[in-house]
Amino acid sequence: MDNTIEITYIKALSRGDQKAFELLFLYYQPKLVHFLKGFIKNDELARDMAQDIFLSIWNDRNKLSEVKSFQAYIFKMAKNSVCNYYDHLIVNEKFVAEQLKKPSHTESTEELVFANQLQCMIDIAVSQMPPQRKQVYMMSRVEGLSNAEIAEKLNINKRTVENHLTSALAELRKVVKIFIMFFY
Whole-prediction pTM value? Predict the structure, then answer.
């Protein structure tokens, strides 16, 4: 497009001339879409971005009276749109990555009830264990002590601690299996 004609259209557009807008749109829109596709690699998105650019031009048409080159103006807008698009993608990816790192707290009511009932059954089973086995289990699983620390505190052999834990865990596995069979 000849620079003199372009300047005439820009001035007419800045005064709200729809015909001048249509002529500039028809001339530059395909070029703008092609330019955007080169960066975005998505035909539909490139067309949408070009449409948004021209909508912005129409909405801010009163600012166009100062523009000397419409082509430079719209391609600068296109460059800014591409930068904004990729900035938005980066922010989105960071947000998604952060959300994936967070533990999920969306347990259903049914899952919470099931977990509470299972914990209740385990507590009952532990309370019915022989005193020393119960004590060894609690020191290991609740207090987090090692087998050697438990043996030292209770003044018993480490192997005895291991035997108590093996028996306690075997009993609890049975309780969990029965619970799952009846309630799940």
Answer: 0.54
Q: What is the CATH number of the domain that holds 8?
A: 1.10.1740.10
Render pLDDT for 104-135 as a digit per residue (tens, 0 to 9): 655 577 777 878 888 888 888 888 999 999 99
Q: What is the 3-state secondary structure (H, E, C) of the chain?
A: CCHHHHHHHHHHHHCCCHHHHHHHHHHHHHHHHHHHHHHHCCHHHHHHHHHHHHHHHHHCHHHHHHCCCHHHHHHHHHHHHHHHHHHHHHHHHHHHHHHHHCCCCCCCHHHHHHHHHHHHHHHHHHHCCCHHHHHHHHHHHCCCCCHHHHHHHHCCCHHHHHHHHHHHHHHHHHHHHHHHHHHC
**Do 121 and 92 fall into the same domain?**
no
Question: Among residues 101, 121, 139, which one ends one of the domains?
Answer: 101
